[in-house]
Amino acid sequence: MLLLISPDSLEEALDCAKAAEHLDIVDVKKPDEGSLGANYPWVIRAIRDAVPADKPVSATVGDVPYKPGTVAQAALGAAVSGATYIKVGLYGCTTPEQAVDVMRGVVRAVKDHRPDALVVASGYADAHRVGCVNPLALPDIARRSGSDGAMLDTAIKDGTRLFDHTPPDVCAEFVRLAHEAGLLAALAGSVKAGDLGELARMSTDIVGVRGAVCEGGDRKTGRIQPQLVAAFRTEMDRRVREHAAVAATG
């Protein structure tokens, strides 16, 4: 599993750089603009410059409306600013067809500029609370649009978590469908160290966290702590090894 950490500022990105050996992807977002809120291009560039060159940067382009042209331009902006992973929160898409329409535009805009960039169609475990596409529709949306991955997060940050809205068996089906389509499967949404066993068992490719590595476990008021990143990674690797050992004997 790859560990994705989401700093909310350049200062926190520098803290991530101190823990670079323990993480795989540095994610750029703007939490005060939503679950997958987009940050400024110059912030993406500054964070790209601040973290080691071998650590890819991902960037969210927002909890987007059904406006394919607008979203395609935003995605291109993230790619131009140095992001390797481009994540699109399909917040305003109420049908799979609308979501595919948006993601096809994103894929073309991003890949025309940078063919090696990875486009991720992102949905929400609590989609029922905001009226967007069903979580289990995301892998097919990603496949049909030519995206590289599918991701689930939570839309409403009210203390509820990924598994509160999409139980482990449903998340496992999400991962299975993504892998069946040849996609990366990413899961986030107030993920805690105690969830890592389940995430390893379902062969999640990317785990996204923030609160779990912040001081006091608070994603809003706490600051990312390098030692917490290291501890989370240690537990993640332990769980992956444990699952591999069970699979080898089973």
> Strand order across the biggest sheet?
1-2-3-4-5-6-7-8
Mean pLDDT: 95
Number of strands: 8
The general outline is globular
Number of distinct helices: 10
Any descriptors?
8 strands; alpha/beta; 8-stranded parallel β-barrel; 250 residues; globular
Description:
With 250 residues, the protein is α/β, with parallel strands linked by helices. Helix content is 44%, strand content 16%. The chain contains ten helices and eight strands. It has an eight-stranded parallel barrel with strand order 1-2-3-4-5-6-7-8, surrounded by six helices. Strand 2, helix 2 and strand 3 (57-63) form a beta-alpha-beta unit. The chain is globular. The model has no long low-confidence stretch (mean pLDDT 95).
Topology at a glance:
Blueprint: E1 2-5, H1 10-18, E2 25-28, H2 41-50, E3 57-63, H3 68-80, E4 85-89, H4 96-113, E5 118-124, H5 127-130, H6 138-145, E6 149-153, H7 162-165, H8 168-180, E7 184-187, H9 196-201, E8 206-209, H10 226-249
Parallel strand pairs: 1-2, 1-8, 2-3, 3-4, 4-5, 5-6, 6-7, 7-8
